[in-house]
Amino acid sequence: MRLRACAALLLFLSACATSAPSPAERASRNPRFANLQRAATLPWTDGGRCVVREASQPWPLLVEKCYRTLDHDRLEFHDTTGRCTVASADAATVGLGFCVLAAPEIAVGAVIVLGVVVVGVAIQEALDAYELRHASPEEAGTSRGAKVSSREAGAHRKPRPEPDPAGQSRQPPVPPVPVSQTGRASCEPVPVPHAGEDDPHDECADNFPPNRYPGMDVLVGGVRFDALQVGIRRLWEIKTHQFETYSDFVRDREIEKEIKQLDRERKAAAMCGYGFVLGVSTQAHKDALQRVDRSLDIVVTGCKR
To answer: Which CA distances in Å does 59 have to 23, 41, 81, 105, 141?
Structure first.
């Protein structure tokens, strides 16, 4: 109720503070598209699905509905106008961040995003669909033609040699990752869709840490991790094997493979200033790994397959 009261107050203030746009201005500005563009500059933990669902609402109401799906760890709010401090007791109660973000026109410097924003998948798809619908036939044809040409060019390109699949059985190819000026893979976390189609594994990765980007893996330092934990710089690898059901021979081979993978992931996490934790489903799996490497930080999740 407090969020709704604050949003209603901000709507009222915006109506009083700004002059009504002309019919031509209203026709030329689509509120849904404007909201999507605005939301694209912010980090969302759900890929922007809530934003797309509520994009036809006025901006303050959209913020009310979706405020909890923001990545708050990457946002700083500054009441540069003083409006949120004095205008509403409700705003102070629900938090300065909500009041500042829900303001109809955000002042420069009021919302600061830490790091590079990767536009939410759902928001990007909605923006692309809008632009395609509103393009002229010639522009739409050009856009489609460019995509077809790009696919055809890719089909005729000489394939590159496949990397050694050892230890990579669950990880399909991933899109290029940002690189720093030194040429090294960026430490900025980049969400990418979960690898593979292992629903029990993905559910564990999303809910147990819990995952800052539900439904997504994350690339850090050029290495894919199953989850980035909410509220802390900690990366996770999740294993949901029912390890105790394997034969002794299979157990030994599995441990050898996992130790190599975990060493690579732990080094990438440490290089970028992140902690690293391994989640396994059973105590037997944890014991087998720690017999080889006692330094591993391992948690028994109890996740089922």
So the answer is: 20, 14, 19, 10, 33
